[in-house]
Amino acid sequence: xxxxxxxxVEDMIPELEMxxxxxxxxxxxxxxxxxxxxxxxxxxxxxxxxxxxxxxYIKFEVELLMVVKQKTQEKGIHLKKNNLVYSITNRVNRLYxxxxxxxxSDCKLWVSYLKFCKQVxxxxxxxxxxxxxxxxxxxxxxxxxxxxxxxxxxxxxxERARRFIHQGLHIHKxxxxxxxxxxxxxxxxxxxxxxxxxxxVEKKENDSPADPIIEGNLAEVIxxxxxxxxxxxxxxxxxxxxxxxxxxxxxxxxxxVEGMKNxxxxxxxxxxxxxxxxxxxxxxxxxxxxxxxxVYEDGLKNVPTRKMWSLYLDYILNxxxxxxALPEFKKDCLKNAFEAAHRENMxxxxxxxxxxxxxxxxxxxxxxxxxxxxxxxxxxxxxxxxRYHLSKSDEEGAMAVFKEIISNPNIPDQxxxxxxxxxxxxxxxxxxxxxxxEEGVNNPIVGAALKGRYIEWLSMTRGIxxxxxxxxxxxxxxxxxxxxxxxxxxxxxxQPKVSQKNSRVVFETAVNQFGKTNTDxxxxxxxxxxxxxxxxxxxxxxxxxxxxxNTHLVDVFISEFHLHKAEAxxxxxxxxxxxxxxV
Length: 583
What we know:
The structure is a single chain. The chain has 31 helices and no strands. It is about 80% helix and about 0% strand. It is an all-alpha fold.
């Protein structure tokens, strides 16, 4: 094996000498290339070949090829005067051949080889490679698309491109990907032929018989075949979008739209597509908009869904993004659309907010009230309605809305709404704020979420002793709150003189209430005792945690515990080093 490697490397010496002579590599770089190639060749000669080893060798040679190309270009060396690029390209080609023979089932490997061939213009290899690849991987329609694209775009062969599409569709009879690609290729080819025809003498062009390719008939054939196989309106919308890119497809476009209307009359996207097409037709801008709206209104009669209304509203909203033309007319259209959607109970949360934002001189109170009446569980709308009253200093209105919210258990995220009200009253009326805090922490829906914040507020406004007394009561009153324990232990830790007695009460309560299902409470306790307590206490907590935690959390806790231990050792070591350096 070693002799074979040496022979392979010796064959590369003329190539390296040429690089040296042309000043592409210096002596050290050349030595490094020899070393790397020997290493890769040794790996390549193993009985059991590794795909990763071959790919690393390919990567090395491709990078070397890029260096050679760059430096020959910089030095103005004409590539035809040396065979460096040809030599390295052939080596990579050989390596890819070895790879696909050894690992033929790896689809990514084939695609990578194709990309390389395209990059270095090895066109003769690609056609053969495509046939081999599809023989092995005919179950993947995407590869037929790659093959057809290569033949059409790079080899200018529509015949071979069609062959791959037809071959793929023979196997994958209902492949949207292949029908779409075949449709696109035929239109692109027709466009090419039309451009060629424009360069011919007009008389000859007029005298020539009708060409079905130039008329785009083959794309229509593919469309007709797809109609029989595919039952998906978005697929036909995609075909329509492709056809709209060519100005010779008006009749084909109408055929697709008519087909959608007949086959998918209850699909929202059908009506949305038909309506938006009206905007591209002739007439004044106002006439176009009216026609679009008329089609949308027909769609809403046939498909009265929230999605259909949303598509209609999005169209009108997009119109209003351009205020330069017909601004007042567009605003009226938007106002009318929002009002109609609200009457039909079809506005989403997003559209209620857009109504407030986009329509001028709107009655915000009325719209927010409508929104919360129609979408009773929208926490965001309720919050905005509450903010509206607070922004107007309407305390009575705000409290009325707040009472509506807390009386409805179906409104999610109520804790944030409580905090909004509490924040306001902490500024304008501290007595009312205290009353609300006490009500909130005892509320079964939001109590657990508010307790921690309440303790922080008490500590800040009335001192740590009051907070401690409240903590003892709240900690034992359901619903239990993890946030309460976390807030309290942080308050204790922040005191100028840490009270070990009060701190341990917090940790013991936390592990008693949450010790089965939460590793954090144990780690809080461990870290505290590591800092202020004794090693034997930490060991006791560790053993207690192992016994208490649910089985699936034990390993998690052990990992967290040992990570903390390692970090503590590193911190002590760093501290000792700094002390030693300072002496």
